[in-house]
Amino acid sequence: MDALIHSFSVKSLWGFKNIDWTQMNPDVNILVGVNGCGKSTLLGIMNAYYSGLVEGEARNYVQVSALPEKLPAEVALLLLRPYEGLQDLGNVISQVLAQEERPQQLMDILDEMFAPTGKKADVLDGNMVFHQQGQVLGYEKLSTGEKQLLLILSRVYLSRKGPAVIFLDEPEISLHISWQRQIVEVIRTLNPQSQLFISSHSPSIFGSGWGDKVIYFEDIESENI
């Protein structure tokens, strides 16, 4: 697939740093760097820019240049951060079930990832539930990490019918190490048309065949002299 975003530059970030990211992969980009270098900030700026949230004087202040300048209207834009949006999980699940009465692909992936605890996804009376040792659990009974995974996969699933740019900020904060190893492949399975940008410290994210997709933050930053 062609890259949805080809390049992104920010001048004078925090007043002293320039970012010039010109070598972007069309599928997966894993941004690695020390704490505080600006990885999460950069993903947030990219999302804001393409969401149209950086406009007018604010756009001039941030001093962003990008190729393309705008994304086509049909491109979905997702910013997924640890523990953000969990209060909307019920609404997101309802959107999934409104699109597809029984989202088998999503449930099969959840069954595989939840297998260590014996949970299996199901849809009963129009609600997503999980069977475990003879009990039927609503999504609200899941652990925080399980809810986070369910939210990520559900939101990606909602984007599956078209191209999407997905920003995934430090998923290792909320995901078990075995899920970290699977998350890139799972997202790409749910939406093969997605361009994925991940900030991470975890070798588990990029150590499962994605090492050639790693971009070191130090290679795209320079001092604003």
What's the order of the H and E elements? EEEHHEEHHEEEHEHEHEE
Strand order of the largest sheet: 5-9-10-3-11
What amount of the residues lies in strands?
25-35%
Low-confidence stretches: none
State the separation between the terminal residues, measured CA to CA. Answer: 37 Å
Compute the average pLDDT: 92
Q: How many strands, what sense, and barrel or not for the largest sheet? A: 5 strands, parallel
Q: Measured on Cα atoms, how large is the radius of gyration?
A: 18 Å
Helical percent range?
A: 25-40%
Anisotropy-based shape? elongated
- The total of helices stands at 7
E-strand count: 12
Structural class: alpha/beta
Overview of the structural elements:
With 225 residues, this protein is α/β, with parallel strands linked by helices. The chain is built from seven helices and twelve strands. It has a five-stranded parallel sheet with strand order 5-9-10-3-11, sandwiched between helices. The longest helix is centred in the last third of the chain and has 15 residues. 32% of the residues are buried. The mean pLDDT is 92.
Layout of SSEs?
Elements: E1 7-13, E2 17-21, E3 28-32, H1 39-51, H2 56-62, E4 64-67, E5 76-80, H3 89-99, H4 104-113, E6 120-124, E7 127-132, E8 135-138, H5 144-158, E9 164-169, H6 177-190, E10 194-200, H7 203-206, E11 214-216, E12 221-223
List descriptors.
four-stranded antiparallel sheet; 33% helix; elongated; five-stranded parallel sheet
What is the gist of this entry?
33% of the residues lie in helices and 27% in strands. The protein contains 7 helices and 12 strands. The protein has helices spanning 39-51, 56-62, 89-99, 104-113, 144-158, 177-190, 203-206; strands at residues 7-13, 17-21, 28-32, 64-67, 76-80, 120-124, 127-132, 135-138, 164-169, 194-200, 214-216, 221-223.
